[in-house]
Amino acid sequence: MARKKAYKEEEVIEKAMELFWEKGYEVTSVRMLEKAMGINQFSMYSSFKNKKGVFLESLECYKKKAKRELIDKLKESSEGVDAIKQYFYDFIAFSRIQDSNRGCLITNTVSELGEKADPEILRKITSFATDVKDLFIEKLATDKSKTVEVLEMQANYLMVSLQGLSVASKMFTSKQLDDFIKNSFNNI
């Protein structure tokens, strides 16, 4: 008979996500995960198979958190470009939770792993970015004068700007970030 787990997977994954967000994938060791999650290596492997499994679940946890705190607000807005601009401001607050300038877990992972990223991790990251870009296109399309090509170009520009904002949010002042956002939307 299998033993009943003495922990909730959602709770331990939230703790793992926080650790990966703060330290990165490569630096985070299994020992660090054990300590942060409050479970032993056997339990971790039983539930998640390996470190990569914990990370993939952490990315899902991050995606749910971002959906609740950022994406749903953007989806529900009828403000078009102004909704995207507000998303950028909300993103800064999201990336600076608890006075730590962590940026975005997705951007941090891309910066850290780049082309050497495991294909499964890369698919999760790409899927998340595609969902955000599709929302940007939807909001940009409220301006009926924009062609499909212009929508795609502007959405690509905003995605690259958002990645830059993620990195910049780790070290620049609120004023500098505000100036960046205002300038990013001048031609949209």
Task: Please characterize this protein's 3D structure.
With 188 residues, the protein is an all-alpha fold. The protein has a domain at 60-184: Tetracycline Repressor, domain 2. Helices cover 72% and strands 0% of the residues. The protein has helices spanning 9-23, 30-37, 41-48, 51-76, 81-95, 105-113, 119-140, 148-168, 174-184. Helix 1 packs across helix 2 and helix 1 (9-23) packs across helix 4. The protein is elongated.
Lay out the secondary structure:
Blueprint: H1 9-23, H2 30-37, H3 41-48, H4 51-76, H5 81-95, H6 105-113, H7 119-140, H8 148-168, H9 174-184
* CATH architecture verdict of the domain at 60-184: Orthogonal Bundle
Kindly report the average pLDDT value.
93
Sheet having the most strands: none
Globular, elongated, flat, extended or rod-shaped: what is the shape? elongated
CATH class of the domain at 60-184 equals Mainly Alpha
Give the strand content.
Answer: under 5%
How do the SSEs run, as a string of H and E?
HHHHHHHHH
Low-pLDDT stretches: none
CATH-assigned fold name of the domain at 60-184: Tetracycline Repressor, domain 2
Instruction: Please estimate the helix content.
Output: over 70%
The number of strands is: 0
Termini distance?
Answer: 61 Å
- If you compute it from the alpha carbons, what radius of gyration comes out, rounded to the nearest whole angstrom? 18 Å
Question: What is shown here, in short?
Answer:
This protein is an all-alpha fold and 188 residues long. The protein is 72% helix and 0% strand.
Which tags fit this structure?
mainly alpha; single chain; Tetracycline Repressor, domain 2
